[in-house]
Amino acid sequence: MATVILVRHGRTTANASGLLAGRAAGVSLDQIGRDQAALTGDRLAPVPLIGVVSSPLERCQQTAQLILDRQTGAPYAPVDLDLTECDYGQWQGRMLSDLATEDLWPVVQSQPSAVVFPGGESMAAMQARSVAAIRRHDAAFEAEHGPEAVWAAVSHGDIIKSILADALGMHLDLFQRINVGPASISIVRYGASRPSVYATNTDGAICRGCPRASTLAMRRWAAAQDKRRHEPLSPRILTCIHVFTSFPGPIGSSLAPLAFPGSARFTCRCGPGSSS
């Protein structure tokens, strides 16, 4: 089967403020989110994507465009309503800190399969439509372009988590154990007998002193990570975005930089001044 790269949109002002944006219109990427999405576009630039399918919401379409801008070809770029954010109903537009006091909150965290948002959809229905959409597109891309086709789907945190849970054979009630950060990349390949998950939540950390960190987007991204963690990132735990030791399967070297081995140490080969 083809290979899908699942991309979450970059950070928005709603993410930064703790607001549950849901399907509200006008929620766009903030500056950090644009930089994150630009870096993701840089990471995907060496991968010849045949398609970039996006949620219709603005933040996802902005992220998708930053990916498309860095492709040398002209990937098919449809919008799919089935990849849109969960319909949170009456929860939409409220602060997460406020929602955490609701009786439904612990159910969302521990038994999402039983959750139906007031005035919205169930989390089980959210997963069913998003998984069906991914599998439908994947089969169509393979039928047209062959089993080595690679495409991207740009969507939302809960949507991607539910897709990964399905691919991993996890019950929906366990999907909160999966983390999917802004502008992160996850990779799934749907085989004849089962899906294979090659990477989850990779975000293109860069090495201190790496010459490839000279772009404005990468410098801003690194500064944002330092601020978030309240201390400089340790070079020992960083992974250069251009390094991967091996990647199984026919998709080969073009996907290699996107998924990282589970080792505690990585070696940067980008040039002088790089760290490991």
Would you mind describing this structure in some detail?
This protein is of the alpha/beta class and 276 residues long. The chain has 8 helices and 5 strands; from the N terminus they run E-H-H-E-H-H-H-H-E-H-E-E-H. Strands 2-3-1-4-5 form a 5-stranded mixed sheet, sandwiched between helices. Helix 2 packs across helix 8.
Tags for this entry?
alpha/beta; 276 residues; 32% helix; 8 helices; globular; five-stranded mixed beta sheet
> How would a crystallographer describe the biggest sheet?
5 strands, mixed
For the termini, the CA-CA separation is 35 Å
Please state the structural category: alpha/beta
Low-confidence stretches: 206-218, 227-250, 260-276
Q: Helix content range of the residues, please?
A: 25-40%
* SSE order: EHHEHHHHEHEEH
Count of distinct strands? 5
Mean pLDDT: 82
Q: C-alpha Rg, in Å? A: 18 Å
Principal-axis shape equals: globular
Q: What's the oligomerization state?
A: single chain
**Arrangement of strands in the largest sheet:** 2-3-1-4-5
Helical stretch tally: 8
The portion of residues forming beta strands comes to: 5-15%
